[in-house]
Design a protein that fits this description.
With 208 residues, the protein is an alpha/beta fold. The chain has helices at 47-59, 76-79, 82-85, 96-99, 106-117, 122-131, 133-137, 192-207; strands at residues 3-8, 11-17, 25-32, 37-40, 67-71, 92-95, 147-150, 155-158, 161-167, 176-180, 185-187. The protein has a domain at 3-103 and 139-153: Ribonuclease Z/Hydroxyacylglutathione hydrolase-like (Metallo-beta-lactamase, Chain A, 4-Layer Sandwich). It has a 7-stranded mixed sheet. The radius of gyration is 17 Å and the shape is globular.
Length: 208
């Protein structure tokens, strides 16, 4: 079952389970606007995640026909379900750089070259590629998804929130987070390393 927590006015954290995964859970976020919602990340495209997300959306009375999406990066635990919940009129925002990796093998090929350089054999790498969660539970090439690409510095207004898109590469090449300058809150899709990087970028941009 999803854990739903109100963390700021009109902003909720949705914790989804990740069965058989050392991460145990992943956080998604929902911003409630006056006319539309924004769901930030979606969890893996696997049964437990889908059931939990459905429960959370029902509990928050979300109208998916008036919901847009923001994908912080293309890893399966953050982008896997977007094609499940998005409607025809949904906007699906993603960083311009990250969008270039969605339906290609360029990141896989780069990772495999690095692994081969460190001694992994081709057979092992092929097995990893076929069984990795990003392959099993991520976006598929036939998923009917059209992305609205955003760049560093672009803004999104949802209700009382006025977000700036901040590119925070590291965890993925085009990782993107959202920042509300008035509320001074960076969030969405970040681990400890990315929070540190994002904090440094935000300080340079808004405080230095």
């Amino acid at each position: 079952m999803a854990l739903v927590e109100k963390i700021f006015p009109d902003l909720f954290k949705i914790e989804l389970p990740l069965p058989d995964n050392p991460l145990k859970a992943v956080n998604c976020y929902l911003v409630a606007g006056r006319n539309r919602w924004l769901l930030v990340d979606t969890g893996m495209n696997q049964r437990a995640c889908k059931v939990s997300m459905a429960q959370a959306l029902k509990a928050l009375a979300v109208d998916l026909s008036r919901t847009d999406f923001f994908i912080t990066h293309i890893h399966a635990d953050h982008a896997g379900q977007v094609s499940v919940w998005a409607k025809q009129n949904s906007k699906i925002y993603i960083g311009r750089k990250e969008a270039g990796f969605v339906f290609t093998d360029s990141l896989w090929n780069q990772a495999c070259r690095q692994a081969r350089a460190h001694g992994f054999d081709a057979e092992t790498l092929q097995e990893i590629r076929q069984t990795h969660p990003n392959r099993k539970f991520g976006l598929k090439g036939d998923a009917p998804v059209q992305f609205a690409r955003v760049s560093d510095g672009d803004t999104l207004r949802i209700g009382d929130y006025h977000f700036t898109c901040i590119e925070t590469p590291g965890h993925s090449p085009g990782h993107m987070c959202l920042y509300d300058d008035k509320k001074r809150k960076p969030w969405a899709g970040l681990g400890v390393r990315e929070i540190t990087r994002a904090a440094a970028l935000l300080y340079q941009r808004f405080c230095a």
